[in-house]
C-alpha cells in the first residue's frame, strides 16, 4: 500500500501507546488480549513510519511505574516484549531499521537486558528509521540520572557549574543524539504526558486521539500526520505563515 504525500513530515514522532486494557475490557476480554492486539498495532505503525520517511519513532513500551501493576500483567508485558524482539528483530534488520532503547537498565531482569542489548547491537549500523523503545523509562528518573552525572563531573573538577547548558544536559539524557520529538501522540483520550520525554517535549506538538492503542491503524497515523502538517510551529518566534485575510 502506497503512502500519501505530506507537505511536512516530522523527523521524530513519539507515541504513548495507551488503552490496551480498556480495549480488552470493552470487549469482555482479559487485559492480556489487549496487549497482544497492541503489538500488532506496533508492527503496523513501524511500517507506516518507514514508508512515510519518518527518521525516528519512539514508543513508550514500559514505564518505570508499570512495575506496580499485578505481577501476572507485568509478566505478560515482558513476555510480549521478548517475543516481539525475537520474532521481529530479523525483519526490522532487513528493513534497515535501527533499534535504540532508552530507560534505566541498572536493575533489569537478566532475561530482558541481553535481548535489548542484542537488538541494539545487531541494528547499530542501520540507517533508515530509528525505532526508539522506551523501556523501564520515566522522564523524571532520566533527568535525575543526567544531573547526577553532571554533579559527579563537577565534584571531580572536570566541569564548572557555570558551564552546564541545555546542550550539555541533552548529551547526558538517554536520548543523546536523538532529535527532540516534533509530534507526540497519545491514544485512548487521555491528555497528559505521564512522565514521558518531559525535557525533550519542550516544543513538541501534541495530539490526543480517542482511539485505544489496539485500534491505532495506518490510516489513523496518517490522519494525525496530516493534522500535524497544518500546524504552525513557531518555537517562541513569529509565525512563518502568512496571516489569513480579514473576513476570510
Automatic annotation (TrEMBL):
The keyword Transferase applies. Keywords: Magnesium, Metal-binding, Transferase. Its cofactor is Mg(2+). Its EC number is 2.5.1.-. Pfam families: Prenyltransf. The active site is at residues 18, 66. GO terms for molecular function: ditrans,polycis-undecaprenyl-diphosphate synthase [(2E,6E)-farnesyl-diphosphate specific] activity; magnesium ion binding. The keyword Transmembrane helix does not apply. Binds 2 magnesium ions per subunit. GO terms for cellular component: cytosol. InterPro entries: UPP_synth-like, UPP_synth-like_CS, UPP_synth-like_sf. It comes from the Bacteria. Substrate binds at residues 19-23, 31, 35, 63-65, 67, 69, 186, 192-194. Transmembrane segments: none annotated. Catalyzes the condensation of isopentenyl diphosphate (IPP) with allylic pyrophosphates generating different type of terpenoids. Belongs to the UPP synthase family. Homodimer. NCBIfam families: PRK14830.1, PRK14834.1, uppS. This is Isoprenyl transferase.
Amino acid at each position: 500500500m502506497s503512502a500519501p504525500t505530506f507537505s511536512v513530515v516530522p523527523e521524530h514522532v513519539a507515541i504513548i501507546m495507551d488503552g490496551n486494557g480498556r480495549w480488552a475490557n470493552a470487549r469482555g476480554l482479559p487485559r492480556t488480549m489487549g496487549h497482544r492486539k497492541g503489538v500488532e498495532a506496533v508492527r503496523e505503525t513501524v511500517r507506516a513510519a518507514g514508508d512515510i520517511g519518518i527518521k525516528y519513532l519512539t514508543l513508550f513500551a514500559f514505564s518505570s511505574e508499570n512495575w506496580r501493576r499485578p505481577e501476572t500483567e507485568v509478566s505478560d508485558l515482558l513476555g510480549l516484549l521478548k517475543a516481539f524482539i525475537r520474532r521481529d528483530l530479523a525483519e526490522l534488520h532487513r528493513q534497515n531499521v535501527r533499534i535504540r532503547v532508552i530507560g534505566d537498565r541498572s536493575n533489569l531482569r537478566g532475561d530482558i537486558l541481553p535481548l535489548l542489548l542484542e537488538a541494539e547491537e545487531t541494528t547499530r549500523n542501520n540507517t533508515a528509521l530509528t525505532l526508539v523503545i522506551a523501556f523501564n523509562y520515566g522522564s523524571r528518573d532520566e533527568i535525575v540520572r543526567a544531573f547526577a552525572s553532571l554533579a559527579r563531573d563537577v565534584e571531580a573538577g572536570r566541569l564548572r557549574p557555570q558551564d552546564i547548558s541545555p546542550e550539555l544536559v541533552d548529551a547526558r539524557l538517554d536520548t543523546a543524539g536523538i532529535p527532540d520529538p516534533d509530534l507526540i501522540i497519545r491514544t485512548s483520550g487521555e491528555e497528559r504526558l505521564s512522565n514521558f520525554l518531559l525535557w525533550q517535549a519542550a516544543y513538541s506538538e501534541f495530539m490526543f486521539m480517542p482511539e485505544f492503542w489496539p485500534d491505532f491503524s495506518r490510516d489513523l497515523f496518517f490522519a494525525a500526520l496530516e493534522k500535524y502538517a497544518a500546524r504552525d510551529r513557531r518555537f517562541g518566534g513569529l509565525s512563518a505563515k502568512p496571516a489569513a485575510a480579514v473576513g476570510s
